[in-house]
Amino acid sequence: MAFAITQTCCSDATCVSVCPVNCIHPTPEERAFGSTEMLHIDPKSCIDCGACADACPVDAIFPVERLTGGQREYARINAAYYEGEDHRPEQPVRGPVFHDWGAPSFDRVLPADFGPLRVAVVGTGPAGMYAARDLLLHTPAEVTLIDRLPVAGGLVRYGVAPDHPSTKKAGESFARFLTHPRVRLCLGLEVGDGGVTADELAAHHDAVIYAVGAPEARRLGVPGEDRPGSVAASEFVAWCNGHPDVAPDAFELSADRVVVVGNGNVALDAARLLVSDPATLQGTPIAAHALAGLRRGKVREVVVLGRRGPQHAAYTRPELLALKHLSGVDLLVDDHDPAVGAAIDGAADQDKAAVLKDVRREAVDWSLPPAADGRRRIVFRFLSAPAEVRGEESVRAVRVTGAAGEAEIPAGTVLRAVGHRGTPLDGLPFDESTGTVPNDRGRVTGRPGAYVVGWIKRGASGGIGANRVCATETVGSLLDDAASGRLPAPTGSARSFRRLARRRGR
Ligand SMILES: Cc1cc2nc3c(=O)[nH]c(=O)nc-3n(C[C@H](O)[C@H](O)[C@H](O)COP(=O)(O)OP(=O)(O)OC[C@H]3O[C@@H](n4cnc5c(N)ncnc54)[C@H](O)[C@@H]3O)c2cc1C
Ligand SMILES: NC(=O)c1ccc[n+]([C@@H]2O[C@H](COP(=O)([O-])OP(=O)(O)OC[C@H]3O[C@@H](n4cnc5c(N)ncnc54)[C@H](OP(=O)(O)O)[C@@H]3O)[C@@H](O)[C@H]2O)c1
Ligand code: SF4
Ligand code: SF4
To answer: Domains along the chain?
Structure first.
């Protein structure tokens, strides 16, 4: 028997480094890393030692014989990765790995006479925490960790859906660094907006790493999108997570149908939370006000709107597969355009459109209300772009267009799940077209001593684990600059920064 990687894998590759037989792929050194939705265990090479399961921060790895329900599928998914020519790993994976013990190299070591660097990390989401962890584990640096919110964790705390408790566990592996003896934690301290400025941070630290994420939800750019009832899906998920910026009464789910625009994982998270039986959410970290709101709510149907076909959806296969196992919830594909069915029927086994092969297809009559049979449903409507959010006082319907014509989908709430972008930070350059801070391998352009990591560096794409490799690159640039004397010397002391932070913090 072998182990298998399952739904919650966030591709941080922790398991790769502990596997004694190198049977988990793609590894960060392989070209395919970052382009696959998860990592895979080769069942023919796995020796069943369990080291990977112990190391996984999100509890994604289980012995194949212990997989139940929807998780069983993952035995096949792991094995299938090693079958196709395209997916064959670049390293041979049979038998134990024999390392070639060449000259040792220590990527993270500064010259012996180097004093500890004082580094500020702004943002305690995955990107900031991977960067801080790298500095703390591999150098004697002292780290000032700053976040505008009173609770650390970024989107692991306030974005990851509360019904994904295993993924939330990634926060636990970061949390142990919050109390590290070389960390000074400043929560409730904003960089900009009356808190500390970028210049003040630079004056008190050898280097500053900005890991501020991409907090702005992208807009649709269609008439009516600011009507009451039309909001960002990430705001809905933040409400479910008890985010301090979202009022407990922000959502009144009184309509029976909700349209979620977008085909990414955030769209699926929002759809799943809206139609799940609230009883199944009890006992998860969902905010009490959200659980009460969902219990009171009348939502029976969520329409997930994709402007492209099922073969181009941005969501990942594990998240789509999970929807098929939601109890009391039916899935339906709106058969309004023959191209949708053709894409599903023609999909190869490993394509995500193939997951919809056994899902019912039917042309939906949008003039009728959702079925009142006590079951809830998620309807996938592909090849339909939103053209207008209609209504008088508040949202009443969404008009959609596509090659097969127009439709008006009545709905009381519209959630925009069309991605995110970064926002400008005073004192740093900003590229409006990408919503990121211009940088070279993490070095902020034109600002020596300033670095970026995570979504503000690369744009709002990639799960938690993608930020690990990203942080390795940024910290590598910072340490290179330190070793070659390219960091501007700070003028203020650590103690004077502590006083400043106390005065400006909330
Ligand atoms: C709704 C949602 C759900 C997700 N669910 C998953 C999932 O289940 N699995 C998965 O693998 N990935 C998931 N992701 C993706 C994952 O969350 C991101 O890859 C990751 O959070 C990006 O990390 P980051 O550190 O760049 O940004 P963030 O996590 O956003 O962290 C940024 C931090 O910076 C702080 N900050 C911002 N501005 C300032 C300032 N001016 N001063 C001080 N502090 C500041 C913020 O408060 C925040 O704590 C999800 C994303 C979203 C939007
Ligand atoms: N469980 C998880 O692992 C999890 C959960 C949440 C988020 N995440 C990750 O976080 C990242 C961000 O996720 P996301 O869902 O916010 O973004 P995303 O993956 O970029 O998806 C955005 C979706 O919005 C669509 N879109 C963009 N503009 C549109 C418009 N004007 N009209 C209609 N549709 C439009 C895109 O369609 P096109 O493709 O046509 O542009 C795409 O389907 C992703 O990497 C995701 O995997 C992971
Ligand atoms: S989350 Fe990380 S450790 Fe867990 S299976 Fe995925 S890559 Fe491996
Ligand atoms: S159980 Fe052991 S051999 Fe198998 S994949 Fe995990 S670490 Fe590798």
So the answer is: 3-81 (3.30.70.20), 118-215+421-504 (3.40.50.720), 220-418 (3.50.50.60)
